[in-house]
Amino acid sequence: MLGVTYKIGEKxxxxxxxxCVALAGSVLTACGTDSAKSSSESPxxxxxxxxxxxxxxxxRDAAKREQTFKDELGHEIQIPAQPQRVFAPxxxxxxxxxxxxxxxxxxxxxxxxxxxxxxxxxxxxxxxxGGAPSSEVLLSYEPDLIILHTANYAGNGxxxxxxxxxxxxxxxxxxxxxxxxxxxxxxxxxxxxxxxQAIESYHQKVDEAKAVIEKNAPGKKVAIVRFAAKGVSxxxxxxxxxxxxxxxxxxxxxxxxxxxxxxxLSLEILPEMDADYIFVINAxxxxxxxxxxxxxxxxxxxxPAVQQGNVYEVSDEYWLGSGLIAYEKIIDxxxxxxxx
Length: 340
Fold this sequence. Notes:
It holds the Pfam family Peripla_BP_2. It comes from Paenibacillus lentus. Belongs to the bacterial solute-binding protein 8 family. InterPro entries: ABC_transptr_periplasmic_BD, Bact_iron-sidero_bind. It is found in: Cell envelope. The protein is of the alpha/beta class. The protein has three domains: 64 residues; 120 residues, 3-Layer(aba) Sandwich (Rossmann fold); 128 residues, Nitrogenase molybdenum iron protein domain (Rossmann fold, 3-Layer(aba) Sandwich). Helix content is 45%, strand content 16%. It is built from 13 helices and 13 strands. Strands 8, 9, 10, 11, 12 and 13 form a six-stranded mixed sheet that branches. Strand 4, helix 3 and strand 5 form a beta-alpha-beta unit. Helix 6 runs antiparallel to helix 7, helix 7 runs parallel beside helix 13 and helix 8 packs across helix 13. The longest helix is centred in the N-terminal third of the chain and has 52 residues. The relative contact order is 0.10.
């Protein structure tokens, strides 16, 4: 409040009082005018301030909602912080490990990931037997994130078309290192902690299984024979079930696959298969005739593992699967069959 000061002890003179009254009146008039002006302008001013605040908040929220990633083919993409509608064909195993159910699932004709159908039974299948589904088909599922598990899926214009529908991330080969791929998926989906916990749990399972096998079947060798429509092969120790047994559980493979990911198997080289246990896979039920032909031969029956009853047909559903759920099932089978 505006006033007049005076020295202590000085006599308060009447003209000072008049001056005070005049000044006070001026102040009140000015205050009233400013107040009215402020009142008349405040809605617009407040609205502008509110809009600026909301705009700033929206910008910050948008930044939080989107993150920039570069995929394994070098594409830089903006991904929602927590995507809600994910399409990631052939990565359903890993998605489920993170607690994410896709909008559609991979299939080869009518064949899908049968071992996952308990959780995916209500998820529609998209057939990849003739190549990736068209953009029109995929668009009907309204994905907000597309993840392709191999660079092969992104060719022939697929990436360009899919990326117009939603941000599209491409792995070079997600099956090459399932744990690393799971970590990447965790980052893309805002599920890094879930990925970390899943991997830690898996490592614990591996350690426990290794201890049981080393105690009950030390030094034993295995062979994995895959019967398929195109032929018979021995699976090496670098991918799918071979990776789990050899690289994770530390079980030695037959010498025939020491330097091979896959080796064509014929009756002529069967006697060289030095394995204490043989695991047989009928791939998608398409190797039945070839399996019958080989296993009924006298050469097959002369193999020590066969004579000792250590030949087991295992499920192609997950022994040819790629993901920690499949790997855990493979471990359970291996421990059971090698230590009973």
